[in-house]
Amino acid sequence: MTLEKRFPTLFSQPHAREWLLEKASDLASNTVSAYGHALVDYFRFCAIRAINPPDAKRTDVRAYVTDLKSRSKFGMPARRPGYVKSTTHDGFANATIRLRVTTVRLYYEYLIDEEVRTTNPIKIVKYKRGRGFNGNSRGMVERYEKDPWLPNETQWQALLNAASSECIRNRFMLALAYDTGVRRAELCALETGDIDPSQRLLHLRAKTTKSQRARQVPYSQATGELYAAYLQHRRRISRAPGPLFLSESRRNKGLPISFWTWSKVVKALGERAGLPLFTPHTLRHLRLTDLAQAGWKMAEIAALAGHVHPATTMIYVHISGRELSERFRQTLDSTLDWRQETMQTSLQ
Question: What positions does the domain Tyr recombinase occupy (predicted)?
Fold first, then answer.
């Protein structure tokens, strides 16, 4: 489906069409889609407030940010005209709000470049040294980074027990998502030619990745066996090459499944396992954390995850306090043990 058909109201706005098409030439399709949905939401807000988007003032954008926060999952959804309730939760997460505000800022940067206006109503405040944040930036929306939920051993087994009754497609997708740590959009965009069973390698094409960079990631023998079983099952639906994961519903049988479909599968799986916090991204966080605990270097984990900067990987690697205590205990026979003893004798 073309961008014009996906965002008809957006393409009717002056300059919005050109801006989104320009982004489409440089960014991944999922990123462009997120930008499109964000700008549609902003234009809807402007229409309710009788604001002409190209002429919006800083106070107008601040009102939009306040509106987004009133729809935040941390507060009550706003009861106002034009409010669209989320199908997955009440309101927006902090990351979603920041994405929408960033989209609006980039849109106004484009208008400045096109000489439609001279200022951006969303300006990032820069702090000088000695005046807070040491030169870092701060926008209109606070950034909250909370540790994601990861299943413990008992919860992981409960999840696998619940998944054992799933169809072969869902079982294979679950195993492949954990093994490779791919994003849900990357998983659902896989095609039949993207898997090399002889080397047990998954080939991620550049146009399907967030960074627009191709990469190869390995998967386990157990997942390879599930792949062989799924391939036989897939042939009963379609023998044509193309999208790997196909819908089996009456309405969409044979069509590629969307990442929304996969999200619903994962949500239902988590509910049956008694794990309501389980999401598709949980598998990615869990895999990268497991690799870190297994001794992989950050650069290696970053390469598998498709992160351009290894520092980004640190956001995904989570070591619990219990694990840090265990690592602390294991180092008592090392130089740290000697240093602890010298501190004890010298400082007590």
Answer: 145-329
> Can you tell me the distance from the alpha carbon of 30 to that of 282, in angstroms, rounded to the nearest whole number?
19
**Domain boundaries, given as residue ranges, for the chain:** 3-138, 153-280
Q: Which of 266, 268, 273 is nearest to 158 (CA)?
A: 273
Cβ contacts of 316 within 8 Å, gap of 6 or more: 284, 285, 288, 289, 301, 305
How many residues are recorded in the chain?
348
CB atoms within 10 A of CB 292: 19
User: Cβ(59)–Cβ(80) under 8 Å?
Assistant: no
DSSP H helical segments within 204-317, as ranges? 221-237, 259-272, 280-293, 298-305, 310-316
What's 71's DSSP letter? T
Sign of the CA dihedral 96, 101, 102, 106? positive
- What are the mean pLDDT values of the chain's consecutive 10-residue runs (348 residues total)? 77 86 81 89 92 93 89 48 41 80 93 92 58 47 72 92 94 95 94 95 91 91 94 94 92 89 94 94 90 85 86 71 56 56 57
What is the residue-wise DSSP string for 121-175? SS-PEE--TTSSGGG-EE-SS-----PPP---HHHHHHHHHHHTTS-HHHHHHHH
Task: Please report, in angstroms and rounded to a whole number, the separation of the first and last CA atoms in the chain.
Answer: 72
> Tokens at residue 314, please?
């640190």
Q: How far is CA 134 from CA 126, 141, 142, in A?
A: 9, 19, 17
Question: Residues near 87 by Cβ (< 8 Å), separated by ≥ 6?
Answer: none
Tell me the C-alpha distance between 210 and 218, whole Å.
19
Q: Which CATH architecture has domain 153-280?
A: Orthogonal Bundle (1.10)
Q: Note the pLDDT tens digit of each residue in 232-277.
A: 999 999 999 999 999 998 888 989 998 889 999 999 999 999 999 9
